[in-house]
Amino acid sequence: QVQLVESGGGLVQAGGSLRLSCAASGLTFTHYTMGWFREAPGREREVVAAISWSGSRTYYRDSVKGRFTISRDNAKNTVVLQMNNLKPEDPAVYYCAAARRYDFGSSISLRDEYDYWGQGTQVTVSS
After folding, report:
1. Which of 24, 35, 72, 83 could bridge to 79 as Cys pair (CB 3.0-4.6 Å)?
2. Residue 127, SS3 per DSSP
3. How much of the chain, in percent, has pLDDT values that exceed 90?
4. Would you call 108 helix, strand, or coil by DSSP?
5. Does residue 104 surpass a pLDDT of 90?
6. Backbone angles phi, psi at 80, to 5 degrees
7. What's the rounded Cα separation, in Å, for the pair 57 and 52?
């Protein structure tokens, strides 16, 4: 079965960095757009970043542009979210997600577009 396993969350000071990784198995990785979402207490799950199947196209929510970078390694079936200059508004449970699609339209920011989800990893930022 399909599994997405996140790692790399933790506690970091504001201004610090974390690198989240997601290892995918049980699927043909290059058939999937990959995304990172986050969910903070009392808030809706929201997209953070997404990357096309080839890695040639990326999407970021405005609040993380210039700070976060999404990348993928199709040979290793992994997707990485590098998070720099973490801010007090970034703490949440971060989820890796996979959407079986090749196109990269605006709907890739919608959680309903994604078919599979990881279990999440907690990111905490201390001020």
Report:
1. 72
2. coil
3. 93
4. helix
5. no
6. -125, 140
7. 5
What are the tokens at 16?
């610090």
The strand pairing partners of 13, in sequence order, are 126
Q: Which two tokens stand for residue 43?
A: 């808030």
Joined together, the tokens standing for residue 39 give: 């969910």
Give the span between the Cα atoms of 111 and 122, in whole angstroms: 19
Q: Listing from the earlier edge strand, what are the strands of the sheet with 3-7?
A: 3-7, 18-25, 78-83, 68-73
Q: DSSP per residue over 45-72, as a string?
A: -EEEEEE-TTSS-EEE-GGGTTTEEEEE
CA distance 104 to 35: 11
